[in-house]
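Example 3.2
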Amino acid sequence: MTYNDTFRDRAGRSADAKKALLEKLKAAPKLSEEELAERKAARLAREAAVEAEREAKLAAIEAQKAAVEQAKADAEAARLAEIRAAEERAAAKLAEKAAAAEAAKAKMAAALTLPPRGSDSRYPARKGGK
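Structure, written as tokens:
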């Protein structure tokens, strides 16, 4: 590009640029059957690898979900076992209290009953051994 370009100079440069652009956009030569088969095999291998990775991720997620569910089930079973044990302890304590109350009641009843008449062992001793 010079200081005093003419229209013809600019038109020539424009034509050259247009030719270069058309060369750039020209269709690429057709690939051979071998190259096409090779590219297809590579694409299929990539797709298979991606699919295998996806399956592995899904399996890991499922395993994690199963582990979480198992942990929840174990925690629930432990909680229920603790509740059952607490209920059994409460029932045993209640039975112990009932037995103690029954024993106290029997002791009180025994203390309040009068011996049958004439069974006092002190009387014969006072009267001289009957």
